[in-house]
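My hope is that you will study the record closing this message with an eye to the fold:
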Amino acid sequence: MSHVPSVLFVCLGNICRSPLAEAALRHEAERARLEVLVDSAGTGSWHVGKGPDPRSCAEAARHGIDIHSYRARQVKAQDFRRFDRIVALDASNLADLRRIAPSNGKARLSLLLDHVPGLEGQDVADPYYGGPEGFESTWEQVSAAARALVAELKAR
């Protein structure tokens, strides 16, 4: 039996960017007929148990994806052992992940846009304090990254 790759997306609160990244990767993996375990979490605990931001839900729905059932959670030490890859949506969250990673973790940490040629080193801007256009921009970025991650995972 072959190993099913697993990816955890992490942003600050797990209500805007990382749920959209989770949805985008699920969507792209399904289109590519790639079996992958996907989840998302936040480095902060403010929104634990809450659903995604309504603007994230609306943006996902524009692309035919329902994320209303997603629930925010905080990243845990066991995530570093459970997932093959933990992908941060910005440099601040990547630094936090590196700081809290247990010594026995197996997950490979990366920055989301490092997977998109030409966008390496860039953060996915947090759309929380802006309008719907920020969520559109987030969707474009996480979708491009999801397509790149699917190509990487299929090439393994």
